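Input/output pair, single chain:
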Amino acid sequence: MILVLKRGTKESGISNVVANIEKEGLQTHVSKGTEVTIVGVVGDKSRLDIDRLKASPYIDRVLSVTESYKLANKKFHPEPTSFAVKGTQIGPDNLTVMAGPCAVESEEGLLTIARAVKEAGATMLRGGAYKPRTSPYSFQGLEEEGLKYLKTASEETGLATICEVTSAHAVEAAVKYVDMLQIGARNMQNFELLKEVGKAPLPVLLKRGMAATIDEWLNAAEYIMSEGNPHIALCERGIRTFETSTRNTLDLAAVLVLKEHTHLPVIVDPSHATGVRDFVKPLSLAAVACGADGLMIEVHNNPECALSDGPQSLTFEQFEETMRDLAPYIALSGREQKA
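Output:
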């Protein structure tokens, strides 16, 4: 349920509305726009006297929300969400570029990559310390040792860091070393894990499941937000279709749909979407043109020898070229690209 307050309602009136809702055991979420204030209501609405609400001197309209996700809903929060990750801003004014290896392999290798992507203009360093792989015999990541390498790279370059977590144990370790947590596609509907990152003190990047609808994706975000963590970015990384010429099918239309339905920032991962490094740059340009708030791009100092996802990882030269060619698209979108 959404309560649209009358224009000019003062803080005392907002507090009055909130108090009357919360005394019935429901939760409220206040969103102050430039002209109107909205109070979102979550809980058992049968406890409320709707006619009494409509008669309030502070309430203009009472609207129902038919979607199952509430906190992630643009109706609840009309203004786009923006939040800081170690000084870099994720949101509508800044183009966030998360770059780095699929998997952290060594301290020296990660430092080499971190310096290169920083020089080219990346705003965050990505690197996997926990790697859920299709095969149990594939490289599974360095775990806490890899997290320590990410912290070292962050301290040297100043880049914020992001790492995927796969369990409550991984969350507990990661919050000590990195600046943002990532939920991978395979765990998008791991509801217990979503609750854990919802309780964590760090922002979260939530990747879309391989066969997830947008509604299911936003409900996954709702799990995180309902635990108290509002700092979430959504990542479109391609979905599984009948097409086999690319690793996945990048759904750029999802960026537009999400902008209609949620206030959360949207990141696009063209690396996992295609699995082909030559496709990463053109799809990065297209993603920014579609209104994406950022990109996640895999970069490696020696892709042919990478322990994970080498065929989709850019060389330093290719990443530098991509960043250079992105500049006019970023400018046309009215954003900045800064750390």
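The chain is about 35% helix and 20% strand. The chain has a mean pLDDT of 93.
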